[in-house]
Automatic annotation (TrEMBL):
Pathways per UniProt: Protein modification; protein ubiquitination
Pfam families per UniProt: BTB (PF00651), NPH3 (PF03000)
Lineage summary: Eukaryota, Viridiplantae, Streptophyta, Embryophyta, Tracheophyta
Family designation: Belongs to the NPH3 family.
Spans annotated as Disordered: 479-500
Taxonomy, superkingdom: Eukaryota
Coiled coil segments of this chain: none
Protein name according to UniProt: BTB/POZ domain-containing protein
């Protein structure tokens, strides 16, 4: 540069550069305005920039152009920094050349596009960076989509990091090509990881809009999460996970590994993601609930809750499943799964009767071929919750269907002390019921007369049901009596006296 340096420029506190005032002002409108307003009398000027886009590197590029414009070449490797810096300094000659270079963006090589996007991240303070990033990203995704559309077997050679242009070639080793097809479709995974979460989100939206292979996008999302989570803070993890969920939600469900969704769920519960993202994740899991296992559903309850397991989450999963159109086989699988879950959580002493009741009535009764699991679950729940009221016990027992219990369970329930412990106010009726059951137990039944045995067991069950219905009616009558007494007390004051 020239020996006469009468202009001192401080670039974002990173570096101080000395320039010739006359040369730089000949190109930069910004410097002409600044120096024209200056009241400095000795001829030396100092300019301080605190938010110069791209920092000292981009400023040096523009200053080199001003000194040696005839020798300076604008190219994909420097066009982003030059464009943003020239826009800031109002160097019109540089802007003309950068715009001309950007017109050829569709013909840039993959590494040049990726480098340009990385530079957009460095000059994010510039308003120009967003528009440049959008054009670069569009070209990047177009290039990637073209390689896959041409041939999966030629993806690596057609758009590899080392190639400057598309070159389509045939692989003579077809067997080797087939083995490496997965690698050829995913070679770009690590390269895209250098982009910021915001640019990755834009990249993924473009991929989806271009109808890129959903299975490959799904694989990239899980790979992206796995790699990035090792080195970022919680806030960035939350942002990454929300981007992953939003993208998975719009993909073909068959392309999203169901087991992987539960891995995302565990992370989401720990990061307190947004409600909208959590809702989308629950819907994705719920819609495919027939693929889940019991271990998948045994999610520990949030730290503030006293329950052992996150029952509300499973209720939401099941409701999402039931809201869709389901085949009979799918519904039976989910019914069996929920029954297993109910039996697992029944022993939790902190599980409220209302929540347990919600689980029992969650699946339509028509989907259950047997109530064996339900009976065992209620039996365990009554054992773990000895302080239940008669009404609460009746509500739980009423969910059982006698016809869907095995003969062994029917015989067992008639002798089950926990099911017989419901007391009725009418002692005489209770005594009659006990005597009836006692008489039935004493009847000798031959091994050949199974129908009579089942009939007697049915009588036992109906007696218990009558007892429960009677208790319910008596409780309702007591409530009605109390209400009538209260209303009569209040109404006596307002009624007029009868004439004699």
């Amino acid at each position: 540069m020239e020996a006469c340096s009468d202009l001192e420029v401080d670039i974002n506190g990173e570096e101080t550069i000395f320039l010739n005032k006359q040369i730089i002002c000949a190109y930069s409108g910004t410097f002409r305005k600044l120096i024209g307003k200056s009241t400095c009398s000795n001829g030396n000027f100092k300019v301080i920039f605190n938010d110069f886009p791209g920092g000292a590197e981009s400023f040096e590029l523009v200053s080199r152009f001003c000194y040696r414009s005839s020798e300076f070449t604008v190219m994909p490797s420097n066009v982003v920094l030059l464009h943003c810096a020239a826009k800031f300094l109002e160097v019109t000659k540089v802007l003309e050349q950068t715009k001309k270079c950007m017109e050829e963006i569709r013909y840039w090589a993959w590494p040049e596009l990726l480098l340009g996007l990385k530079q957009c991240q460095e000059v994010e303070t510039s308003s120009e960076a967003d528009s440049l990033a959008g054009r670069l990203m569009d070209a990047l995704v177009e290039k990637l989509c073209l390689t896959v559309e041409v041939s999966p077997s030629s993806a690596a050679s057609a758009c590899s990091p080392d190639s400057s242009l598309f070159r389509f070639s045939c692989d003579s080793k077809s067997t080797e090509s087939f083995k490496n097809s997965s690698v050829r479709l995913t070679w770009w995974f690590d390269e895209v990881l250098v982009l910021s979460p915001g640019l990755v989100e834009t990249f993924l939206k473009l991929m989806v809009s271009r109808k890129f292979d959903n299975l490959v996008i799904s694989r990239f999302l899980f790979y992206y999460q796995k790699v990035k989570f090792c080195s970022v803070a919680s806030n960035e993890k939350r942002k990454i996970l929300e981007t992953i969920i939003d993208t998975l939600y719009v993909l073909d469900r068959s392309c999203v590994p169901y087991k992987s969704l539960f891995g995302v769920l565990r992370l989401a519960l720990g990061l307190n993601i947004s409600k909208s993202c959590m809702y989308k994740l629950e819907l994705m899991i719920g819609h495919q609930l027939d693929q889940a296992t019991l271990d998948n559903l045994l999610v520990p309850s949030p730290s503030k809750s006293s329950h052992l397991y996150y029952v509300n989450l499973v209720l939401r999963f099941a409701n999402a499943f039931l809201d869709g159109e389901r085949r009979g086989s799918q519904l039976k699988k989910v019914s069996s799964l929920i029954d297993q879950y109910i039996a697992e959580v029944a022993a939790d002493p902190c599980l409220k009767p209302s929540k347990f009741m919600s689980l029992l009535t969650l699946i339509p009764d028509s989907a259950r071929e047997s109530h064996e699991e339900i009976y065992r679950a209620i039996d365990m729940y009554l054992e773990a919750h000895t302080g239940l009221t008669n009404g609460e016990k009746l509500n739980l027992i009423r969910t059982l269907s006698y016809e869907k219990l095995s003969g062994k369970s029917r015989a067992h329930i008639s002798r089950n002390a926990k099911f017989q412990a419901i007391e009725t106010p009418d002692e005489q009726q209770q005594q009659q019921q006990k005597q009836l059951i006692l008489r039935v137990d004493k009847v000798e039944i031959s091994g050949d007369n199974e129908k009579l045995k089942e009939h007697i067991e049915g009588i036992q069950w109906r007696v218990m049901e009558l007892e429960r219905a009677c208790l319910k009616m008596q409780n309702q009558m007591e409530v009605i009596k109390k209400r009538s007494k209260n209303s009569s007390r209040g109404s006596n004051r307002s009624l007029p006296k009868l004439c004699s």
